[in-house]
Amino acid sequence: MVLYIKYMVSLRCKMVVKDELQRLGLTYVLVDLGKIEILEDITEKQRELLKRNLLHSGLELLDDKRAILIERIKNAIVEMIHYQDEIPKINFSDYLSEKLGHDYTYLANIFSEVKGITIQQYIITHKIEKVKELLLYDELNLSEIADKLHYSSSAHLSNQFKKITGLTPSYFKQLKHKRMGNLENM
């Protein structure tokens, strides 16, 4: 049996879900971002307990098919951008269609209708969050980051970064160094 969970976006969330499943005596085959697969059918009582206990941890067991599909789209994007060493070089639309087994136009229409933003805007937001993370790690220069995230150029990345954050990548990076300097002077 497959169940879908909203707001499940980190390894910590996966640990919380595993603990809840064990507490209820449910054997899981898979606990992934936004998705769990258990061996046995779940009783209504177990489902309600799982739903309530997950809610206490900030997670939500999904029942609505559209909400499940939206979460699957979001989780596929988060997984692709944040949890893979290399972002696939195929188009995001092809990646999502293949991964979720639906036509991209269908996915895009439902996503926009429910979330109020396009899939592309959601992807850009997450790519910029990944850029922030990579800038803070200070291991790659902007050209390397642009290449890693498949931007056409570092100028394109810089323009998109400024559009989303209001800051240039170099100024964002300077803020980190200023904060670190302030902490050292305390």
Describe this protein's structure.
The structure is a single chain. With 186 residues, this protein is α+β, with helices and mostly antiparallel strands. It folds into 2 domains: 1-63, 2-Layer Sandwich (Alpha-Beta Plaits), CATH 3.30.70.100; 64-186, Homeodomain-like (Arc Repressor Mutant, subunit A). Helices cover 64% and strands 9% of the residues. The chain is built from 9 helices and 4 strands, in the order βαββαβααααααα. Strands 2-3-1-4 form a 4-stranded antiparallel sheet, with helices on both faces. The longest helix is centred in the C-terminal third of the chain and has 19 residues, at 119-137. The model has no long low-confidence stretch (mean pLDDT 89).
How would you summarize the topology of this molecule?
Blueprint: E1 2-6, H1 11-23, E2 28-32, E3 35-38, H2 44-56, E4 60-61, H3 65-82, H4 92-100, H5 104-115, H6 119-137, H7 142-148, H8 154-165, H9 169-184
Antiparallel strand pairs: 1-3, 1-4, 2-3
Helix pairs in contact: 3-5, 3-6, 6-8, 7-8
Summary?
The protein has 186 residues and is of the alpha+beta class. It is 64% helix and 9% strand. A four-stranded antiparallel sheet has the order 2-3-1-4, sandwiched between helices.
Would you identify the CATH H-level superfamily of the largest domain? Homeodomain-like
Shape: globular
Q: What structural class do you assign from the helix and strand content?
A: alpha+beta
Helicity level: 55-70%
Instruction: State the distance separating the first and last CA atoms.
Output: 54 Å
| Average of the residue pLDDT scores | 89
Tally the beta strands: 4
Largest sheet: 4 strands, antiparallel
Widest β-sheet, arrangement of strands: 2-3-1-4
Name the beta content range.
5-15%
What is Rg?
19 Å
Element string (H = helix, E = strand) = EHEEHEHHHHHHH
Low-confidence stretches: none
Overall tally of domains: 2
Number of helices: 9
CATH topology of the largest domain: Arc Repressor Mutant, subunit A
User: What is the CATH-assigned architecture of the largest domain?
Assistant: Orthogonal Bundle
CATH C-level name of the largest domain = Mainly Alpha
